[in-house]
Design brief:
The structure holds 2 protein chains of 2 kinds. Chain A is mainly alpha-helical. Chain A has 9 helices and no strands.
């Protein structure tokens, strides 16, 4: 049961961290619980379907189907996060001002929730399909249902607990800086996803590595320790990145930052200033 | 002007890597999983070259090839096979395992 719980925990953890950041970033939006809940449900459903097609996907595009799908899912999430971050940069100040005036419990403003719902769904989908395949293998391999169910419960609870801890940690950020902080955190999440996507494309030989292992900090902080994995999900930490991953990370981060700068200026009466 | 030099160097470096990537003939190596074990627990590959691993799964359940040292993970479907590229690697030992059957599916890739 413990082995099952550990694997489930590791997969749930990364998705839970992304969901937590999204949940924090949508603070004050009416109906966000429903949206994000729908995203999680869609992700789980998608994961089950995806696992069912694992064989077909793996065989597609001369064996690169899995990497292309993973990279595609990651890039889609990157675009959605970028859209939201840039939108927030231009509207965040108004929202903060309203929350300040009305108290943070009061629901304010509409935000592109659909974009973040999709980010949640994609995060759950990616991690979830591995869990489904693993659990199926366990069940088929003769593990008892008690072990499987217990492992899921234990692992999922643990992963969600870390996610909740992050969420409540983020809530301690003063409201004045809150959306700036969550926006920058989303930028780093997106940059990390772009780096992961690049790693998949290198693995499928669709991108040159530009230095197969640019550095190795696994002795200091392994990707697979709890902290390493948390940082992997939140800021894209990778103990042994290929050069092209670092390139994708920097370019994605820079593009979102530039977008936030360009469209994030306080609105004045002057139109057509761009 | 110092900046343009840096850019030129970076571009040259990228092109060098890219051309090596395009022209290389990648040596292939096969890894077979059966009864949740790798049939060969040691596999020797050339260092300093990109290498194509073909991982075949003869079991009726999926496996996930994973290696922390190689920074790779890929699902290998039941009764299927998938390719996976690694390297160019420095000489050394790179352990790998099957994430779905960690206790039994273990092996080492040796680059030399």
């Amino acid at each position: 049961m413990l082995g099952i719980a550990i694997l489930v925990f590791r997969e749930v953890l990364e998705a839970a961290l992304v969901v937590s950041v999204v949940f924090a970033a949508t603070r004050g939006v009416p109906g966000r619980g429903r949206w994000i809940g729908a995203g999680i449900a869609a992700g789980i459903l998608g994961a089950v379907v995806l696992a069912g097609f694992a064989g077909a996907i793996a065989g597609a595009v001369e064996g690169a189907g899995q990497e292309l799908l993973n990279a595609g899912v990651l890039f889609a999430a990157v675009v959605m996060i970028a859209w939201h971050a840039i939108w927030m940069a231009s509207h965040g100040k108004e929202i903060t001002a309203q929350m300040h005036a009305l108290g943070s419990a009061v629901s304010v403003g509409r935000r592109p929730l659909a974009a973040l719902t999709l980010v949640v769904a994609l995060a759950v989908l990616r991690e979830g399909s591995e869990v489904v395949l693993f659990l199926y293998a366990q069940a088929a391999g003769g593990s008892s249902w008690v072990d499987v169910a217990g492992g899921i419960a234990l692992g999922a609870t643990g992963g969600c607990a870390v996610g909740l801890a992050l969420y409540f940690g983020l809530l301690r950020i003063p409201i004045r800086y809150f959306f700036t902080a969550t926006n920058w955190l989303l930028l780093l999440v997106a940059a990390g996803m772009a780096s992961q996507a690049a790693r998949f494309l290198v693995q499928a030989d669709l991108l040159p590595p530009l230095g197969a292992m640019l550095w190795d900090t696994s002795a200091v902080l392994s990707d697979h320790s709890l902290l390493g994995q948390t940082l992997h999900a939140l800021i894209g930490y990778d103990a042994k990145p290929a050069g092209v991953q670092v390139l994708f990370y920097i370019i994605t981060g820079a593009l979102i930052a530039i977008g936030m700068r360009l469209w994030g200026k306080p609105r004045t009466g002057v139109s057509g200033a761009a | 002007m110092k900046r343009t030099l840096v850019w030129k160097l970076a571009l040259g470096w990228a092109l060098l890597h890219a051309s090596a990537w395009l022209h290389a003939q990648d040596p292939e190596f096969r890894l077979v999983i059966k009864d949740h074990k790798f049939e060969h627990v040691e596999i020797i590959v050339p260092a300093g070259k990109k290498v194509k691993l073909i991982i075949e799964n003869k079991d009726a359940t999926a496996e996930e090839f994973e290696s922390y040292e190689l920074n790779r993970e890929k699902v290998v479907p039941a009764n299927g096979q998938v390719p996976l590229f690694v390297g160019p690697l420095k000489p050394g030992r790179y352990p790998f395992f099957g994430d779905f059957n960690k206790d039994t599916a273990k092996g080492v890739l040796i680059a030399q």
